[in-house]
Amino acid sequence: MKRMNYWIAAALGLLLIGGCAEKPVLNTEPETDKIQIIGQLDDATDNGAKAALVTPDPESAASSARGPEETEMPTEEPTTEPTEAPTEAPTEEPTEEPTATPEPTATPAPNRTKAEKLCDTALALIDEPYARGGTSTETGFDPGGFVYHCLNEVGVSVRHKTSKGYSENEDWLRVDSIEDLEKGDLCFFMTGSNESVNCVCIYLGDGEMIYPSSSKGTVIITKITSDYWRDAFVYARRVF
Question: Within 13 A of 144's CA, how many CA atoms are on the CB side?
Protein backbone atom coordinates (compact mmCIF):
# COMPACT_ATOMS: atom_id res chain seq x y z
CA MET A 1 0.00 0.00 0.00
CA LYS A 2 2.83 2.37 0.82
CA ARG A 3 4.40 1.50 -2.49
CA MET A 4 1.29 2.40 -4.41
CA ASN A 5 1.01 5.74 -2.73
CA TYR A 6 4.62 6.35 -3.61
CA TRP A 7 4.02 5.85 -7.28
CA ILE A 8 1.02 8.15 -7.28
CA ALA A 9 2.96 10.88 -5.54
CA ALA A 10 5.79 10.46 -8.01
CA ALA A 11 3.46 10.77 -10.95
CA LEU A 12 1.91 13.93 -9.55
CA GLY A 13 5.31 15.41 -9.02
CA LEU A 14 6.33 14.79 -12.61
CA LEU A 15 3.17 16.43 -13.80
CA LEU A 16 3.79 19.53 -11.73
CA ILE A 17 7.37 19.77 -12.93
CA GLY A 18 6.32 19.45 -16.58
CA GLY A 19 3.63 22.10 -16.22
CA CYS A 20 5.98 24.64 -14.72
CA ALA A 21 8.85 23.91 -17.07
CA GLU A 22 7.19 25.07 -20.32
CA LYS A 23 4.72 27.95 -20.75
CA PRO A 24 1.98 27.47 -23.24
CA VAL A 25 2.53 29.37 -26.55
CA LEU A 26 -0.40 31.35 -27.90
CA ASN A 27 -1.30 30.52 -31.44
CA THR A 28 -1.32 33.87 -33.25
CA GLU A 29 -1.60 32.34 -36.66
CA PRO A 30 -5.01 32.63 -38.18
CA GLU A 31 -6.93 29.49 -37.99
CA THR A 32 -6.85 27.65 -41.25
CA ASP A 33 -10.50 26.72 -41.04
CA LYS A 34 -11.60 30.35 -40.58
CA ILE A 35 -9.44 31.56 -43.45
CA GLN A 36 -10.89 28.86 -45.63
CA ILE A 37 -14.49 29.91 -44.82
CA ILE A 38 -13.69 33.55 -45.60
CA GLY A 39 -12.12 32.51 -48.85
CA GLN A 40 -15.27 30.60 -49.76
CA LEU A 41 -17.36 33.67 -49.00
CA ASP A 42 -15.13 35.79 -51.27
CA ASP A 43 -15.51 33.26 -54.05
CA ALA A 44 -19.29 33.32 -53.65
CA THR A 45 -19.21 37.11 -53.82
CA ASP A 46 -17.31 36.95 -57.08
CA ASN A 47 -20.07 34.70 -58.48
CA GLY A 48 -22.81 37.26 -57.81
CA ALA A 49 -23.86 36.15 -54.29
CA LYS A 50 -22.33 39.10 -52.45
CA ALA A 51 -25.72 40.72 -52.17
CA ALA A 52 -26.78 37.90 -49.85
CA LEU A 53 -24.10 38.96 -47.27
CA VAL A 54 -24.98 42.67 -47.35
CA THR A 55 -27.37 43.79 -44.65
CA PRO A 56 -30.40 45.38 -46.37
CA ASP A 57 -31.25 48.99 -45.70
CA PRO A 58 -34.11 49.22 -43.18
CA GLU A 59 -36.16 51.54 -45.34
CA SER A 60 -35.65 49.34 -48.39
CA ALA A 61 -36.68 46.31 -46.39
CA ALA A 62 -39.82 48.05 -45.21
CA SER A 63 -40.58 49.12 -48.74
CA SER A 64 -40.16 45.58 -49.98
CA ALA A 65 -42.50 44.33 -47.29
CA ARG A 66 -45.14 46.82 -48.34
CA GLY A 67 -44.97 45.74 -51.96
CA PRO A 68 -44.37 47.85 -55.08
CA GLU A 69 -45.48 51.43 -54.80
CA GLU A 70 -48.28 52.47 -57.08
CA THR A 71 -47.36 55.09 -59.58
CA GLU A 72 -49.80 57.44 -61.27
CA MET A 73 -50.22 57.07 -64.98
CA PRO A 74 -48.88 60.09 -66.75
CA THR A 75 -51.64 62.42 -67.90
CA GLU A 76 -51.74 62.72 -71.64
CA GLU A 77 -51.27 66.17 -72.93
CA PRO A 78 -54.48 67.36 -74.66
CA THR A 79 -54.02 67.52 -78.37
CA THR A 80 -55.65 70.35 -80.17
CA GLU A 81 -57.30 69.64 -83.49
CA PRO A 82 -55.62 71.48 -86.28
CA THR A 83 -57.83 74.27 -87.43
CA GLU A 84 -58.42 74.55 -91.11
CA ALA A 85 -57.47 77.74 -92.70
CA PRO A 86 -60.59 79.77 -93.49
CA THR A 87 -61.49 79.40 -97.09
CA GLU A 88 -63.01 82.16 -99.03
CA ALA A 89 -66.72 81.62 -99.60
CA PRO A 90 -67.49 81.04 -103.26
CA THR A 91 -69.31 83.80 -104.96
CA GLU A 92 -72.80 82.69 -105.87
CA GLU A 93 -73.97 83.26 -109.38
CA PRO A 94 -77.07 85.41 -109.53
CA THR A 95 -80.09 83.20 -110.12
CA GLU A 96 -83.42 84.12 -111.52
CA GLU A 97 -86.28 84.33 -109.07
CA PRO A 98 -88.45 81.18 -109.35
CA THR A 99 -91.87 81.75 -110.78
CA ALA A 100 -94.52 81.28 -108.14
CA THR A 101 -96.74 78.28 -108.78
CA PRO A 102 -100.41 78.51 -107.99
CA GLU A 103 -101.68 76.77 -104.88
CA PRO A 104 -103.41 73.44 -105.64
CA THR A 105 -107.17 73.61 -105.34
CA ALA A 106 -109.36 71.10 -103.53
CA THR A 107 -110.85 69.94 -106.86
CA PRO A 108 -108.30 70.37 -109.66
CA ALA A 109 -109.61 71.22 -113.12
CA PRO A 110 -110.11 68.15 -115.32
CA ASN A 111 -108.29 67.34 -118.53
CA ARG A 112 -110.69 69.13 -120.88
CA THR A 113 -109.63 67.27 -123.99
CA LYS A 114 -110.20 63.78 -122.55
CA ALA A 115 -113.33 64.87 -120.67
CA GLU A 116 -114.81 66.35 -123.86
CA LYS A 117 -113.99 63.17 -125.76
CA LEU A 118 -115.73 61.06 -123.11
CA CYS A 119 -118.85 63.21 -123.34
CA ASP A 120 -118.86 63.04 -127.17
CA THR A 121 -118.56 59.23 -127.01
CA ALA A 122 -121.52 59.03 -124.61
CA LEU A 123 -123.67 61.43 -126.68
CA ALA A 124 -123.11 59.23 -129.75
CA LEU A 125 -124.97 56.44 -127.89
CA ILE A 126 -128.23 58.30 -127.28
CA ASP A 127 -131.29 56.07 -127.87
CA GLU A 128 -129.26 52.86 -127.67
CA PRO A 129 -131.33 50.25 -125.83
CA TYR A 130 -131.13 49.53 -122.12
CA ALA A 131 -130.14 45.97 -121.24
CA ARG A 132 -129.23 44.60 -117.83
CA GLY A 133 -125.54 43.68 -117.87
CA GLY A 134 -125.07 45.00 -121.45
CA THR A 135 -121.74 46.57 -122.47
CA SER A 136 -122.02 47.25 -126.22
CA THR A 137 -124.30 48.50 -128.98
CA GLU A 138 -124.98 44.89 -129.95
CA THR A 139 -126.28 43.94 -126.51
CA GLY A 140 -127.50 47.29 -125.17
CA PHE A 141 -126.29 48.92 -121.91
CA ASP A 142 -126.97 49.19 -118.23
CA PRO A 143 -125.32 52.09 -116.29
CA GLY A 144 -122.17 50.11 -115.34
CA GLY A 145 -121.78 48.68 -118.87
CA PHE A 146 -122.34 52.13 -120.39
CA VAL A 147 -119.46 53.67 -118.37
CA TYR A 148 -117.26 50.65 -119.12
CA HIS A 149 -117.80 51.03 -122.88
CA CYS A 150 -117.28 54.81 -122.98
CA LEU A 151 -114.07 54.79 -120.89
CA ASN A 152 -112.46 52.03 -122.96
CA GLU A 153 -113.40 53.89 -126.16
CA VAL A 154 -111.35 56.94 -125.02
CA GLY A 155 -108.33 54.88 -123.94
CA VAL A 156 -109.04 54.31 -120.22
CA SER A 157 -108.64 50.57 -119.64
CA VAL A 158 -111.07 49.45 -116.92
CA ARG A 159 -112.80 46.22 -116.03
CA HIS A 160 -116.54 45.83 -116.30
CA LYS A 161 -118.02 46.67 -112.91
CA THR A 162 -121.31 47.66 -111.38
CA SER A 163 -122.13 51.28 -110.57
CA LYS A 164 -121.09 50.63 -106.97
CA GLY A 165 -117.80 49.07 -108.10
CA TYR A 166 -116.82 52.18 -110.05
CA SER A 167 -117.80 54.44 -107.12
CA GLU A 168 -115.16 52.73 -104.94
CA ASN A 169 -112.21 53.51 -107.27
CA GLU A 170 -110.08 55.75 -105.02
CA ASP A 171 -107.62 56.48 -107.84
CA TRP A 172 -110.19 58.93 -109.13
CA LEU A 173 -110.71 62.23 -107.29
CA ARG A 174 -113.85 62.31 -105.18
CA VAL A 175 -116.20 65.28 -105.68
CA ASP A 176 -118.81 65.69 -102.94
CA SER A 177 -120.92 68.58 -104.24
CA ILE A 178 -123.07 68.87 -107.38
CA GLU A 179 -121.93 72.51 -107.66
CA ASP A 180 -118.29 71.35 -108.10
CA LEU A 181 -118.96 68.96 -111.00
CA GLU A 182 -117.02 69.22 -114.27
CA LYS A 183 -117.61 67.70 -117.70
CA GLY A 184 -116.76 64.01 -117.79
CA ASP A 185 -117.24 63.40 -114.04
CA LEU A 186 -118.95 60.15 -113.09
CA CYS A 187 -121.95 60.80 -110.80
CA PHE A 188 -123.19 58.12 -108.39
CA PHE A 189 -126.70 57.76 -106.94
CA MET A 190 -128.79 55.66 -104.57
CA THR A 191 -132.25 55.52 -106.09
CA GLY A 192 -135.51 54.10 -104.77
CA SER A 193 -135.08 52.04 -101.59
CA ASN A 194 -131.47 51.07 -102.26
CA GLU A 195 -129.01 51.53 -99.39
CA SER A 196 -125.90 51.63 -101.62
CA VAL A 197 -124.93 53.08 -105.00
CA ASN A 198 -127.00 51.52 -107.79
CA CYS A 199 -126.71 54.03 -110.64
CA VAL A 200 -123.91 55.94 -112.44
CA CYS A 201 -124.23 58.75 -115.00
CA ILE A 202 -121.73 60.79 -117.06
CA TYR A 203 -121.96 64.55 -116.40
CA LEU A 204 -122.18 66.61 -119.61
CA GLY A 205 -122.03 70.06 -118.03
CA ASP A 206 -124.71 72.77 -117.62
CA GLY A 207 -126.59 70.58 -115.10
CA GLU A 208 -127.12 67.72 -117.55
CA MET A 209 -126.01 64.06 -117.49
CA ILE A 210 -126.41 60.96 -119.66
CA TYR A 211 -127.15 57.32 -118.73
CA PRO A 212 -129.21 54.24 -119.81
CA SER A 213 -132.64 54.49 -118.18
CA SER A 214 -134.40 51.27 -117.25
CA SER A 215 -137.75 53.07 -117.08
CA LYS A 216 -137.33 54.67 -120.54
CA GLY A 217 -135.58 51.63 -122.01
CA THR A 218 -132.88 53.67 -123.80
CA VAL A 219 -129.87 55.95 -123.22
CA ILE A 220 -131.20 59.42 -122.29
CA ILE A 221 -130.10 62.88 -121.10
CA THR A 222 -131.60 64.21 -117.86
CA LYS A 223 -131.20 67.13 -115.45
CA ILE A 224 -129.13 66.47 -112.33
CA THR A 225 -130.58 69.61 -110.79
CA SER A 226 -134.03 68.07 -110.35
CA ASP A 227 -135.17 67.29 -106.81
CA TYR A 228 -135.20 63.56 -107.55
CA TRP A 229 -131.53 63.39 -108.56
CA ARG A 230 -130.35 65.87 -105.97
CA ASP A 231 -131.85 63.73 -103.23
CA ALA A 232 -130.34 60.55 -104.68
CA PHE A 233 -126.84 62.05 -105.27
CA VAL A 234 -124.01 60.45 -103.20
CA TYR A 235 -120.79 61.85 -104.72
CA ALA A 236 -118.85 61.91 -108.01
CA ARG A 237 -115.44 60.70 -109.24
CA ARG A 238 -113.19 62.68 -111.59
CA VAL A 239 -111.41 60.35 -113.99
CA PHE A 240 -109.46 63.03 -115.88
Answer: 16
- Which range (46-60, 116-130, 220-234) has the least confidence? 46-60
CA-nearest of 104, 113, 213, 202 to 154 is 113
| CB of 178 closer than 8 Å to CB of 224 | yes
Inter-residue contact 132 to 198 (CB < 8 Å): no
pLDDT by residue (tens digit) across 73-113?
A: 544 555 555 555 555 555 555 555 545 544 444 555 667 89
Tell me phi and psi for residue 35, to 5 degrees. -60, -40
Radius of gyration of the CA atoms of the chain, in A: 65
3-state secondary structure of 218: strand
Instruction: Please list, residue by residue across 97-127, b when 16 or more beta carbons sit within 10 angstroms of its beta carbon and e when fewer do.
Output: eeeeeeeeeebeebeeebbbbbbebbeebee
